[in-house]
Amino acid sequence: xxxxxxxxxxxxxxxxxxxxxxxxxxxxxxxxxxxxxxxxxxxxxxxxxxxxxxxxxxxxxxxxxxxxxxxxxxxxxxxxxxxxxxxxxxxxxxxxxxxxxxxxxxxxxxxxxxxxxxxxxxxxxxxxxxxxxxxxxxxxxxxxxxxxxxxxxxxxxxxxxxxxxxxxxxxxxxxxxxxxxxxxxxxxx
Length: 189
Prior knowledge:
This protein is mainly beta and 189 residues long. The protein has helices spanning 7-12, 93-104, 183-188, and strands at residues 3-4, 16-22, 25-31, 37-39, 42-44, 46-50, 56-61, 64-72, 77-81, 84-92, 111-115, 120-125, 132-133, 138-144, 147-152, 157-162, 169-170, 175-180. It contains 3 helices and 18 strands. The protein folds into 2 domains: 3-95, Glycoprotein, Type 4 Pilin (2-Layer Sandwich), CATH 3.30.700; 105-188, CATH 2.40.50.100. β6 (46-50) and β7 form a beta hairpin. The strands form 3 sheets. A 10-stranded antiparallel β-sheet has the order 1-6-7-8-9-10-2-3-4-5. It has a 4-stranded antiparallel β-sheet with strand order 11-18-16-13, with no helix packed on it. A 4-stranded antiparallel β-sheet has the order 15-14-12-17, with no helix packed on it. The termini are far apart.
């Protein structure tokens, strides 16, 4: 039985949008309510069949036949096509936007937290509340396993909260400081 890739979209009666990332290149995939697919704005006819063994998928894309071995991993898919192995991350539009915010260090509320990446001791706090910082500025020095680690501001903004001081023991993922995006920076986006 051949299934259109967009069958789920037709069932839900909503347009779906996904972002697939392959080798640092992003592809926007739109699936409309009729199961039609566009990749980066270009329409494609896509049908696939998952064969019963070995994770093999038969793919028909714009009348071109491809065989692929597809295996799901924790946070990505591994796809083997014509001897080439690809690691593919697929996110719906909402998850993609949230991950971009996390990568920028900026939360949905316009605040970014600098958290401890590991347990350790705070050697120095290089900023004070109310201080303006730029992305990449050193804000905290953390000692862990006899090594000093420089923690940097994930975005431009104003330091609004400092939760630690020099000499404090901290746990992994503990929030150390909070940076709010300043009005000047917000206007640039």
